[in-house]
From TrEMBL:
Protein name in the entry: 2,4-dichlorophenol 6-monooxygenase
Superkingdom, taxonomy of origin: Bacteria
An annotated Gene Ontology molecular function: oxidoreductase activity, acting on paired donors, with incorporation or reduction of molecular oxygen, NAD(P)H as one donor, and incorporation of one atom of oxygen
Record-annotated FAD-binding domain positions: 10-372
Keywords in alphabetical order: FAD, Flavoprotein, Monooxygenase, Oxidoreductase
Amino acid sequence: MHTVEPDVVTDVLIVGSGPAGASAALALSTYGVANIVVTRYASLADTPRAHITNQRTMEVLRDLGVEDEVVAKATPQHLMGNTTFCTSLAGEELGRVRSWGNDPLVQAAHELASPTRMCDMPQHLMEPVLVDAAVARGTRLRFSTVYKSFVQDADGVTVTVEDRLRGDEYTIRAKYLVGADGGRSQVAADAGLPMGGQMGVAGSVNIVFDADLSRYTAHRPSTLYWVLAPGATVGGIGAGLVRCVRPWNKWMVVWGYDVTAGAPDLTTEYAESVVRKLVGDDEIPVTVKSSSAWTVNEMYAQTYANGRVFCAGDATHRHPPSNGLGSNTSIQDSYNLAWKLKLVLEGVAGPKLLDTYTAERAPIGRQIVTRANRSIGETAPVFEALDGLSPQTPEQLWANIDARKDDTEAARKQRARLREAIAFKVYEFNAHGVDLNQRYASDAIVPDGTPAPGFDRDPELYHQPSSRPGAKLPHAWITSGTRTLSTLDTVGRGRFTLLTGIGGTAWAEAARAQDLEIATVVIGPGQEYEDPYGDWARLSEVADGGALLVRPDGYVAFRHATAAASDAEADRLLTEAVRRILGHG
């Protein structure tokens, strides 16, 4: 038992203020759960780092009430999508991929899948939105505070931290500890979380700089410009990269280095030389703001928790930035965990509910680590099409690139190979299914006896909505009076929701009789919500008298395709489902 009086007491202590920690704090404070965030740093992120923000994350931010602020500060989707392959920004263009939902067919799929739009929201802009909202709702934030160690017992966790300003240590007593302290997580190490994969498989350098590059980019607006230049295949993420941070004057370059030889000396002269190599213009004014070295990792936690200690974000999945999955998965981890902590802390759910966090999120973490690293390898065929992987002089590479313009059979084949290789990068830049097809299997999901629907098309490229338990509630536009809203707007806000239609009165009554707070949504002619387009009738996969019980995170937990045989049956089935979901069954 805990005997020494702690200096500070809270319900949840979060270590780290990055996307995972900030979103955990925001969700918990939104739900009324007392929490403290500590970060070793004196400020929030000061470099762009993560930036691609996909539709599922935007749905989370919509539910947490900060979507509008993110949209106002982000680069919009239509400026993200001319992913360009070139010899330098000022040099020859080799091809483009319509990316991030900007292909017309993919754009239609995005509009059908969600009420939200993906955007480019650099981490140094995203963190203040999340943290400011969290603090406004009750989070207590402590900068310059280093996590040192924890001791847990049956009732809570005692964490020792160091105040870097005063130089002294103090203790924080929490019922639960969340380690969101990044890719070198000390909390995950101290918790002994088993990991798969390996760290440090390649090396990269980030160089943040200011320059007006509008003459090279405004006519082909994009988040990413990939540069195939001599040395680009060494380490790193597969090619030299020029990334737009803010159109068209704030940028970041990513360049590889040989990890076995160690990181280069990151002088301003070195950084500027790399920038000029990729931009291809020696005259344009360039101001280097910062440089940092990092390693490409391929590691994932097999377990996300140890007792009352949970980890989220890069602490549990460590991978390159390919596919833009890092902050998205981190925010979604925390969103999954927060409502479960709330219900357990309130005594509504049993501790078993918290076991479902690993069951649901660990497979996603492993999937995205694999996908991000595979995307690096999928850049190689672009070089291969230009014979750019075999050892050769820069002059020979330029000759190979130039040869594609010839009117010869060899050049025709080379052009075809190059087009195919660039088009295949759709798995990195338009992986809509990776973003939205996450399906859970855990004790917080009640199977309905139906077989898994599988996927009609490539599950990495295409989203396939489903209302089967374990899938995210499908999006459909419905109305309420003069308002048009998404089905996703009827759920969330920290509570369960039961959706039914005309003939589902028994389900609605059963929901109101539960000890758990369950909002009821009845969709049909003359009801509070109507389905004028018929989209919900098509997507819901249940009859008018059937029911869907949706969790606070928007996932379907229970489905009954038809009306209950009686009021008693509806009450029994729903009560049994709720007990199982809450860890009482």
